[in-house]
Every structure is written in structure tokens, then in C-alpha cells.
Amino acid sequence: MSADVPGFDTRLVGRQLRRAREALALSLTQVAESTGFDAGDLSRWESGEAQPQLDALWELADIYGRTTDFFFRDLPPAPSRIKFRLARPGRGLKRLSPAARRALVEFEGLCRRRYELEEILDSRPRVWPQRGVAGEAPESLAAEVRRQLGLGSEPIPDLRTVLEEKGVRIFAVPVPESEFAGFSWWHPVYGPCIMVNARDPSGRRNFTIAHEYFHLITESQASLCDLSIAAGPERFANRFAAAFLMPELDVRAEWGKRGLLQTTLTLSQVGALARRYRSSSEAMVLRLAEMDLIGEERREELLEGLAAAPRVLRRPRSAVWHRRLGQRHVSLAGEAYKRGHISLGALADCLGVSVVKAAQIARELGEERDSAK
To answer: How far apart are CA 125 and CA 172, in angstroms?
Structure first.
């Protein structure tokens, strides 16, 4: 066993160990079974009564999906209360799979890293989204938010970039078995943050961003959502997202311009419309029905056809890590490395890649820097 770590604040480390465990809804017994550590020792480490050794911290960091620096820093906590809007029965982190809980932990880490990169580079967002009025009709709120963002009534080519320019941190993290589509919180330190399921198709991810944005501007509590729910706040969030992404005036204009009729409307035509608005085909069908452009029977026929249709797999346009993190995050990490503010290991951590891959990225950044001289 390695020696104890000198100069170590045992109470701080204990508090962070407890936070890391509770974020995954793990009991001391479960951690003991996974690691072989004594549950009593784990309890004493968390209370600050005893000091864990460094190799124990390395193992616990791996179990908790953290880097070891998490245990030595007094970091802002995750939200203590989350609204679980899930189709599956039961609520709380314990009802999620261990992999889904780790996805939430990964999202928290990404929000923190983004905040730290912005602090290092003095590039903090100057403007945050305006809060909406709770109880306002979703369609009216969607029109008002479009006005605030200067979007007019045209389709939004890149919603993620639009919102990130307003200070919203957005990340795509893979969630196993499609347990939920999105998560959002307005952190007291990090600000407004949105997570979408990286396993969902691009149109659904875009719809999730709009859906979660509704929760950000109308609620104060963190929210974890399943878009299949069509009741209560989720119904309002879906209506907002549909009206926000697919403005009625433009949809009606496109419907007429393309000469579409509900009796002959095909799945291919629905898909073409959905691509125009960067949304899913399912959301497009529901929006057309909501606007009375198609009837209830035709809506059900189209939805059944979409459910039965094979999914077309397209080649990714960019590296997976790049698409998951977003252009702003990648640019900030690269700039911090080029200026010497972070190490190669820190660059790898910020980008979620191996040190070997980070070294390749660093060489490319160096070439960019040299060519700019």
C-alpha cells in the first residue's frame, strides 16, 4: 500500500467522497462490495475521522467516475433536488441504471470544466437567458423567446450555438437504453446547463434542447425528462419546443409551397419537413396535427409508419467527442492549452479523450499556432 498523502484536508476529502458516492446513489455496503474496502473504513474516510491512502482514492475515483482532483477541491455541489419526469414507475436516482447515473456525473464534470475554462480565459458569458413567466401559454412563450433571441419566424439552423452564445452550456452524453432524453439545471455557479442523450438521432436531440430550455426559463429545480410523457409540465415543454422550432406561420407557408395534402402525405415528405426545422419526424407529425393540417387518424397512421421504418445510419460528420462537447467547449480547451494554462493531461480530461489523442490534437493546435505567426 502507498503512503498517506501529505498536507491532506481529511474533512474536505471526506465530504467530496460522500458527494461522489451519493451522486451515484450507492450505499457504503455497495462500494465496499465493489472495492473490497471495509465499509467501516469508508465511513471513517467520509466523516474525516481517518485518512485514506492514495491508491484507495485512485480506486474510488474510478468507481465514482471522477478524477482524483475532485476529492481535493471544495467544488460546488450537484443539485440536491431533481424532478424525475420519467415514464418508468418510481422516482429517484436509485431507479436509474448505474450507467445512467454515471452519465449524470459525467455531465456535472463537463459543466464544471466549461466553467473553469471560461474562468481561465476570462471568457465568461456576458448574457444569460431571460426567465419566462410561469403559467404563460407555451406557444406565446415560444414566440417571445424567439423575439428575445432575434430569430424571426425562420427555421433555426443551429439551436445549440444560438443558446450557447447566450451562456447555456450544452453537452451530449450517451444514456443507456434511452432511459431519459434530457436533463437541465440552473446551477448557482455554473449557470444554465442542458444535457441531451447522445444516443438519440440529431432531430430528437435538437427537440430535447428546446424542451429543456423551456424548463430552464420557467422553473428553478433541476429536471430529468422522458419526452414520451405527454402530461403536466412535460406536455407544456413539448408544446413550447414544437412551437419554438416549427413556427406556425412558416410551417403553413411551407405546407402550401410544397403542395402537401394530408391524404397523400408520405413519410418522405414528413422527413423533408422535419429536416427543414431540425426536428424529429415524430415531432413534425404531432406539430402538423396540432395545427389541424392533418387529422387524428392520419396522425396515427404516420406515427405507426415512422415506428416501423428502419433507421437510416449516416456517417458522423465529425469526431464523436467533438460533436458531444460542442464547438465552444473544444475551442476553449484548445485555447487554454495553447496559452499554457492547462497541461496535456488536463486537455485530455477536458475533451474526454486519451492522452495519446490529446497529444495529436495538441500537435494540430501547434501547427495552427505556427501557421498564424
So the answer is: 20
